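re the bet — no i am not wrong, look at it urself. input seq straight from the record:
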Amino acid sequence: MRPERAGVMKRQMIIKRKTEPVEFAVVLHESALRRAVGTRRMMVNQLRHLADESTRPNITVRVLPFAAGIPMGLLPGTFVILDFGQDGKGRRREPSVVYLESVLTGKIYLEREHDVDRYRSVWAAFHNASLNAAESRVLIRKIAKEFL
């Protein structure tokens, strides 16, 4: 198994485990769902899988439709805000971190609170402009049918 595939499998395991699964929330631009990667059958399967997985209580998938425009006038690229939960006394276990990965710059971790707050603002703008989870699931299934 290729190393990058092993990483994908490991991430899926912690999201899908029965005991304390990690919460996963994503906002996908509609263009990411419509851009064909692989065969039409592969696209149908991937989109259906995405819609099915989004019914899990710890997984939220929202779609930013073309009609919403570009919140804040920018496309920030892919980023992940890592929150590490709270201890028994309600304190953060670790400070939040923003993870960026690019073919040009490699992996970057932003730890300064100011940087994390800026990405939280971007996340909030995209989240607020996106369809809710149920509407997103309907759109994802509709796009899957368009690939048939």
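see?? Residues 62 and 133 are 5 Å apart (CA to CA). told u. also The chain has a mean pLDDT of 94. so pay up
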